[in-house]
């Protein structure tokens, strides 16, 4: 039974399903503990105990503790795609589509603030802002490219760069949101308004900062 | 001689100067090694050996290895202020002043790319994007507030937010610049153009992404 080919397809499939279920249980235990104690203060041993497995078994599912960070980022992406996909995109202008995407991102973070803060901190400390490919940048730039094709975006604008810049704005707003809380695991709504910050930053990029030409300026 | 007040002022001052000189030598050794080997792969023992001090003496100057990251960030800020101060600000429009500031930031990074990449990586991994007060945001917002007072910036714009957003754009461009190199300590100009990315991102924010009104669409 060492070789997967020794087992019939049904057995292999059931084994794969069981492994996937066990992995999900370990992941859920990890997220529960991390949202309570923070990432750095949660050990693999504690996660294993919570999931009722031996410590060494954890590594069958996640080769290193840091692999939890990747799993979280992947799950985030999947949830964002699901939300974006559930909304009819047809007929939305570029501004509305970007606004909706920022709003979905805000919701994803606000649904479970303690977990978002703990995992985003771990994501930053793992150096991901520097080495991760920007899936979010690609999503934004797709929206901008479609808007440009419809003439809603200046033809001088590079959709790829706008996508990257929108991702920079999103991350910056998230960091400011997190920075307002005394400790990552304590979520207290102190007037921190992630959604408002996201929409304001987006408006700046859509409309620009420069005043229209005029002697003293004439705000449109 | 345990109490500083036991020594005369001249002695205290000389001692303080000597300590500052020694600290600078340790700092210089650290930066030399880190730019060659990266931050994570440079140990306190190696820095001490390079600076010709005992390992324990390192901690007289820097309480933890991570304090080097703070010292680097402070030195960065001081060098930026020095550059900004050496240019006459009077008569510069807001766009020119922001362009000049971005250009100075680009220069600071490009002067010693290997060190910038290694220390910025350490800065991110220490979680600083999340917990550091944004001095750069304050510099940008000061420029924007002055421009707004002159009517060059739309009065609907919040200079504080623009400052934060400009800092987000700067950090995003820096990360993209670093991401292009195979390893942090290898700087090879592969067409990575930090200055161009910074100026383009700034142009986006100044002018906005939305196309001027035309026959094809009616914004809002």
Can you describe this structure?
2 copies of one chain form a homodimer. Chain A is built from 10 helices and no strands. Chain A is mainly α. The longest helix of chain A has 29 residues, at 9-37. The model of chain A is unreliable at 187-191 and 214-220 (pLDDT under 50).
Features:
10 helices, mainly alpha, 220 residues, globular, homodimer, disordered C terminus
**Looking at the structure, what is the overall shape of chain A?**
globular
Which quaternary structure do these chains form? Answer: homodimer
* pLDDT < 50 stretches of chain A: 187-191, 214-220
Order of SSEs of chain A: HHHHHHHHHH
Concise summary:
2 copies of one chain form a homodimer. With 220 residues, chain A is an all-alpha fold.
Show the helix and strand layout.
Two copies of one chain form a homodimer.
Chain A: H1 9-37, H2 44-51, H3 58-61, H4 67-85, H5 94-111, H6 113-125, H7 128-131, H8 135-149, H9 159-179, H10 194-207
Helix pairs in contact in A: 1-2, 1-6, 4-5, 5-6, 5-8, 5-10, 8-9, 9-10
């Amino acid at each position: 039974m060492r070789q997967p080919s020794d087992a019939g397809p049904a057995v292999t499939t059931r084994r794969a399903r069981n492994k996937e279920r066990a992995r999900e249980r370990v992941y859920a235990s990890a997220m529960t503990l991390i949202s309570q104690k923070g990432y750095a203060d949660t050990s693999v041993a504690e996660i294993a105990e919570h999931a009722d497995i031996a410590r060494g078994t954890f590594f069958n599912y996640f080769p290193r503790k840091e692999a939890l960070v990747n799993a979280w980022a992947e799950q985030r992406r999947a949830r964002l795609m699901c939300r974006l996909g559930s909304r009819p995109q047809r007929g939305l202008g570029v501004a509305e589509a970007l606004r909706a995407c920022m709003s979905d991102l805000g919701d994803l973070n606000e649904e479970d603030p303690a977990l978002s803060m703990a995992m985003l901190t771990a994501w930053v400390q793992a150096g991901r802002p520097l080495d991760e490919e920007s899936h979010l940048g690609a999503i934004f730039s797709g929206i901008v490219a479609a808007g440009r094709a419809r003439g809603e975006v200046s033809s001088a604008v590079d959709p790829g760069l706008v996508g990257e810049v929108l991702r920079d704005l999103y991350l910056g707003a998230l960091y400011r949101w997190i920075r307002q809380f005394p400790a990552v695991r304590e979520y207290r709504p102190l007037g921190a308004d992630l959604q408002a910050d996201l929409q304001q930053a987006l408006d700046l990029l859509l409309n620009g900062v420069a005043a229209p030409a005029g002697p003293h300026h004439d705000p449109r």
